[in-house]
Write a structure and sequence with these properties.
398 residues; alpha/beta; binds manganese (II) ion; binds guanosine-5'-diphosphate-alpha-D-mannose; elongated; single chain
């Protein structure tokens, strides 16, 4: 990737109208084979940009002469226009890489990103930028899924269904970050340059905005509704392959944390000793929990006369509560992160998943003639290491 980026030329100044003030806004338009669309886009967009003190920056990955079409069409444009053409060997990151590269060269305090195929009506894009620059926010999203927004311009019901399903999936995957965002994968959005750390971003494919939002949890976000129009000419570059790239992008965004945590194993000898101490403490707590568990199971099984599997399930809830109190307050008191309910949910989830594994084994042991209490204790002890590692490396990973 780095090699490819080194090979990228600097943006070429195509048009610098006399007396144009330094831009406040950089409009980035990524293009890939849009030769027929750019003259229409420039004709409608450029006049709207003058009052916004904007410059236009095309980042082009085309082989159909889009770059020449841009150069020809911007001849009389009232705003500054630059063009960055990436040769075939330097097209790292596809659409996302192009937008990021454009952002690195932006001169405005604000950046607006929009498509070249007129699916983002220039009037809506200009309004969005104007609204963004008037407010004390960091990111403004053009949404099709709120207010008067609409996806009418998406080609066909299949694409509409995919878009809304993907949006729901992504919102479920990042519930907190995207709680107030209705269109996290919009291609029309603006951001304040100073609020975004471009070095943190590593977009893959089409979903640049999603990458930006997930990597900047503190950014202040607002939305402006717009109606997506049909593509003017040519074809969408979305493809099955882009779909697969999208899934890879998602797993990278989501998987990063879990994998990062597990990899962050103790490195120094002192860390190893500390982990060993935690394991011993965890073992002692576990032993006390086993006493609670066994006593509870005895109660449910003998005087209360419940079935032993039901008894084991109930006993596990009691001993899990006991263990959680001790583990959370004694062993990980100083390193625990997240809210108490969040930690409790994960703790109980783990123990109940393990319970599901234990029950069949318990049943088999009882069937083989082992006493209920002993068989239950044996299944608890067998999972000690799993329980410790998941707690230490995931639930309470500092
Ligand atoms: N530089 C560059 N490199 N530009 C690209 C590339 C690329 O590899 N791929 C596509 N583009 C440009 C197109 O030329 C167009 O200007 C814009 O990016 C959007 O591409 P389309 O092919 O028209 O995408 P779409 O309409 O299917 O998807 C749009 O809507 C989605 C939401 O429904 C995009 O805005 C997506 O980002 C958005 O998620
Ligand atoms: Mn499009």
């Amino acid at each position: 990737q780095a090699v490819g980026e080194d090979a990228v030329p600097e943006p070429r100044e195509l048009r610098a109208p006399d007396g144009a003030p330094p831009p406040r806004l950089t409009v980035i338009v990524p293009t890939r084979d849009e030769a027929e669309n750019v003259p229409v886009l420039l004709g409608r967009l450029a006049p709207l940009l003058t009052p916004l003190r904007a410059e236009l920056l095309f980042v082009d990955d085309s082989d159909d002469g889009t770059d020449q079409a841009i150069a020809a069409a911007c001849a009389g444009a009232p705003v500054p226009v630059r063009l960055l053409h990436r040769p075939p060997e330097a097209r790292a990151g596809g659409l996302g890489g192009a937008v990021l590269l454009g952002a690195r060269h932006a001169r405005g305090e604000w950046v607006l990103v929009m498509d070249a195929d007129l699916q983002h009506p220039p009037e809506s894009a200009a309004t969005l930028a104007a609204v963004a620059m008037r407010h004390d926010v960091d990111v403004v999203i053009g949404t099709r899924y709120a207010g008067r927004g609409s996806t009418a311009g998406l080609d066909g019901p299949l694409r509409e269904a995919t878009s809304s399903a993907a949006t729901r999936l992504v919102k479920a995957m990042f519930p907190r970050r995207l709680a107030t965002v209705s269109d996290p994968m919009s291609g029309l959005f603006a951001f304040r340059r100073a609020a975004v750390r471009l070095d943190r971003m590593n977009p893959l494919g089409f979903k640049v905005l999603l990458e930006l939002l997930v990597r900047h949890p503190g950014a202040r976000v607002a939305e402006v509704a717009y109606e997506m129009a049909p593509r003017h000419e040519g074809r969408s570059k979305a493809s099955l392959r882009e779909g697969v790239t999208f899934l890879r992008h998602l797993s990278r965004l989501r998987g990063r944390r879990l994998v990062g945590q597990i990899r962050r194993r103790p490195r120094t000898p002192a860390d190893r000793v500390r982990q060993l101490v935690r394991m011993v403490c965890f073992g002692l707590v576990g032993l006390s929990g086993m006493v609670v568990n066994t006593a509870a199971l005895w109660f449910f099984y003998e005087p209360a006369r419940l079935h032993h599997l039901l008894g084991a399930a109930l006993a596990t809830q009691l001993s899990t509560s006991w263990n959680f109190l001790l583990v959370d307050n004694l062993i990980y008191r100083r390193t625990r992160v997240g809210s108490l309910p969040a930690r409790a949910v994960r703790f109980f989830l783990l123990n109940n998943v393990l319970l599901l594994l234990r029950l069949p084994v318990l049943q088999a042991l009882v069937f083989a003639g082992v006493g209920v209490l002993v068989a239950n204790a044996a299944t608890l002890a067998a999972l000690f290491l799993v329980r410790f590692l998941v707690n230490d490396q995931v639930i309470y990973a500092a």
